[in-house]
Amino acid sequence: MATTRKSDGAAEARNNRLLGQRIALYRAAAGLTLAELGVAVGVSHQFIQHYETGERAVPFGRLVQIAQALRVSVTTLIGDAFDADAGEEPNVHVVLQVARIAGRLPPAKRAALAALARELGRP
User: 73-92: buried (b, 16+ CB within 10 Å) or exposed (e) per residue?
Assistant: First the structure.
């Protein structure tokens, strides 16, 4: 006999927040505004904002549309955010700020920034 488990509201809110942070990160890296992403997926900028803050859960079909608009795969967008041992990134605000800046850079400077980030990430 299958058992049903009540949804853990705190875990669900955490998951919504984690996914929202990743959407915000990739949107900023793509140099898109909330409104531009909203137009691309057919919703208002308020919906995108609610997804990014975790106030609303992203339906799977919408997640696919968002990934396509951001030119990343759904698995890239999700990443390892939902692994059992994953937690919120401690420096998520710093990462988002860098992504927003990178999204506004011309391609050559964006490539240079990516190379610098890779170099800084080496042990």
Answer: eeeebbeebeeeeeeeeeee
Residue whose structure tokens are 């208002």: 44
DSSP class per residue in the chain: --------HHHHHHHHHHHHHHHHHHHHHHT--HHHHHHHHTS-HHHHHHHHHTSSPPPHHHHHHHHHHHTS-HHHHHTTTTSTT----TTHHHHHHHHHHHHHS-HHHHHHHHHHHHHHT--
pLDDT in tens, the chain (123 residues): 454 455 578 888 888 998 998 999 899 888 899 999 999 999 999 999 999 999 999 999 999 999 999 999 998 888 776 665 555 555 666 777 777 788 788 888 888 887 787 788 777
